[in-house]
Amino acid sequence: MGSLDGKLAIVTGANSGMGMATVEALADEGAKVVMLCRSEKRGKDALAKLLEKNERQLELMLCDLGDFDSIRSFAAKVKEKYKKIDILVNNAGFIALDRQVTKEGLEMQFGINHIGHFLLTTELAELMGEGSRIVNVASGAHKVGKIHFDDINLTKGFNVVKAYSQSKLANVLFTRELAGRLRDKGITVNCCHPGAVATNMGVNRETGFGKTITRMLRPFFQTPAQGARTAIFLATDESVKDISGEYFYKCKPAKSSKRSKDPELAKKLYALSEKLTGRNAE
Ligand SMILES: NC(=O)c1ccc[n+]([C@@H]2O[C@H](COP(=O)([O-])OP(=O)(O)OC[C@H]3O[C@@H](n4cnc5c(N)ncnc54)[C@H](OP(=O)(O)O)[C@@H]3O)[C@@H](O)[C@H]2O)c1
Fold it and tell me: 118-127 burial, b for 16+ CB within 10 Å, e for fewer?
């Protein structure tokens, strides 16, 4: 018997790093876990690995968070199959040194890390209710971030720090604004910084570029299972069941940037996200 028996969880970016570790932990507590992955091959490989030793209730469902049609079709399939989502862990993340764009032409880090998750979450919120929890995996990198409303897709002066920190600040601002909007429904929304974790973050999936650096840094970094602890804690722990709109690090509330606490900024970003996705969660 696990504490999550009968519960349904969805984890994005479930085939790698902390996403995979989160799937493992939630499934081992008895939850059925839908693994949102963009690549069928990487998803199937991860699924096979997760089923090697233990019996776990897992379902692989494909979705590219950089493609609105793919997100809408994923959400439609979930709504067709399930009645209630208890846990949504928005973990998937993308970082790249060069400027790339999503199918809709959004700068890719903002497009996947924030907008993709915004659309997914607002679509899936319909299936959430009293006691459901949303966890956004943000980053301490949000502290150097700004939301560049005048050039949200960073067409001028792109650099990786500017792009990644903007996307991660957006994760924290979205957490705060959504928490307020979903409070009456009994749904909590929190976010976290996992710390420095040795994963596939920054590794080019086609060329493998970046793998050597990650391998070299491994002894100094946390393992994915360690890094995933705060997200798992927020998704499951009884002590945080009534806490919403907060930023956590090492399973404790932590200080986030001044900008990330600006309610006007959070509203402005939410309005822009609605406009970009044509979506309204209420
Ligand atoms: N590692 C760190 O030190 C660190 C620090 C602070 C915050 N974080 C955050 O932690 C989260 C997890 O990252 P990680 O470190 O575990 O990295 P990871 O091993 O690279 O995993 C990232 C996951 O996101 C998926 N993903 C990327 N783009 C996607 C898309 N368009 N649609 C669907 N899934 C997509 C990846 O799928 P593919 O494998 O198919 O590419 C992968 O499963 C991220 O949000 C990251 O920003 C990480």
Answer: bbbbbbbbeb
CA of 155 to the centre of ligand 1 (A): 23
167 lines ligand 1 (CB under 6 A): no
CB of 111 sitting under 6 A from ligand 1: no
- Cα–Cα–Cα angle for 235, 240, 241, rounded to 5 degrees: 80
What is the number of domains present in the chain?
Answer: 1
d(CA 194, CA 21): 12
Ligand 1 centre distance from Cα of residue 91 (Å): 7
- E-assigned strand segments in the chain: 8-12, 32-37, 58-62, 87-90, 133-137, 188-193, 247-249, 252-253
Q: Do residues 192 and 230 make contact, with C-beta atoms less than 8 angstroms apart?
A: yes
pTM (two decimals): 0.97
Q: Does residue 206 lie in a domain region?
A: yes
Q: What is the pLDDT of residues 151-205, one digit of tens each?
A: 999 999 999 999 999 999 999 999 999 999 999 999 999 999 999 999 988 898 8
Gap between the Cα atoms of 36 and 21, Å rounded: 14
- Residue 39 domain-assigned (yes or no): yes
User: Which pLDDT tens digit goes with each residue over 239-258?
Assistant: 999 999 999 999 999 999 99
Q: Name the residue at shortest CA distance from atom 25 of ligand 1.
A: 13
* Domain boundaries, position 29: 8-276
Whether 180 is in a domain gets the answer yes
Residue 2 lies in a domain: no
Ligand 1 geometric centre to CA of 12 (Å): 9
* Residue recorded with tokens 């409303």: 149
Q: What is the CATH number of the domain that holds 211?
A: 3.40.50.720
Q: Catalytic residue at 164?
A: yes
